[in-house]
Write a structure and sequence with these properties.
The structure is a single chain. The protein is 31% helix and 16% strand. The protein has eight helices and 15 strands. Strand 7 and strand 8 form a beta hairpin.
Amino acid sequence: MRKSANICGEKRPMIVVIYCNLQVAEAGCKSRAQPLIRPSGTFSPQAGRRISIVRPLAPRSGERVAEGRVRGANLEWLVNQTMLRKLPILLILLLLLGVQGVYADHEGLRLLGTAWPDATAPRLSDIGRGVGVVFSPDLSVSGNCRFYQALGFACFQDADWSRILDQIHQYNAAHPDRRIYTLVLETHGTNGNGLKLQKSYAPTAERSYISVGALQERLEPEGVFYVIISACNSGRLLRPYIYTELDPYNGDRLFLPATCGIVNASDDFDPARNAVTIITPQSSHIEMTLVGSVRELAPKTQKAILASARSLRITPPTQFAVSDMMVQMLTRDSRLELAANRYVEELSGEMKPVDTSEALFKRFVKFVNAAASREKPSTTRVTSRGAQPPPARNASRRAGGEP
């Protein structure tokens, strides 16, 4: 048990308020923690008690205090009065804590509602309208971008940040009716030392890094005003000393050679005057990604994806990769905790159990199937392979040398 201490180191005279009933007022009041005290003040017969401000006094010789039922009744009355006085304060505290808890629970959804107004689209091909997603090649699968394009997202996948930024510029210029306003980054966080894109962990593989400030500087002219980072320990990317310029000599084993370069902000860049909001998870942790097959979706959903791919003149996808955070955003999960323009120092290896990721994957399948079910029946005949057994999924985490 911890011991209490006087942090000021001073001894002060004690002044207490004592409530005595009639009998105790005549005999005096006694407390286990205090010596005999002599009451003073005025007595109110109507109230049946004396309200006194007293100081400890030495007991008179031969003075005795009546105990027994009188003292027990007095203590019981004192406890009841104390509880009644504290009850309104406790109720107010509980109310404030409850409001704060509700606000905290929905803060992530409030931020998400601003950056991504409504993921419940009337058609499956409009789920990602106005939202772009960037994949690091080693966190993706073959045809992954085609799957997201069929859902209405603008999708980019490359190991070079300079090429990614050029592609975003070209997309917004070519699609004024479907411009990107929000960008989701499914990339590496490099333990919070830089946003990394790479083809593999081989030292000579194509690889590049970018600072958060450089992203803001390059994306604001393109009309992108929200960046949602789904990367491990992403809150550390906003630390002031690497915000605009990364440290290539940070000593982290995950900071591999930048074979395609490092993109930093210009010397005169001022984040305070930039309109791009950076959204990250509130706490540091490892992000998880699952790989699924289109065959795991309902037959009607498969037909809708095929029809959307054909309308875009792209090859229909057969598989996809989806992160836990992407699922939580799409399904508006109340457990999603987000922060805007806020950095953290903590480096964490915490990650969700695989069962949690599997449950989120099922929610994603249900969400996409529900979106497809709202569409009107298509006249296009499509052969479905939905009866085939779903393949096994591989979970990957964006940390260390794991896949």
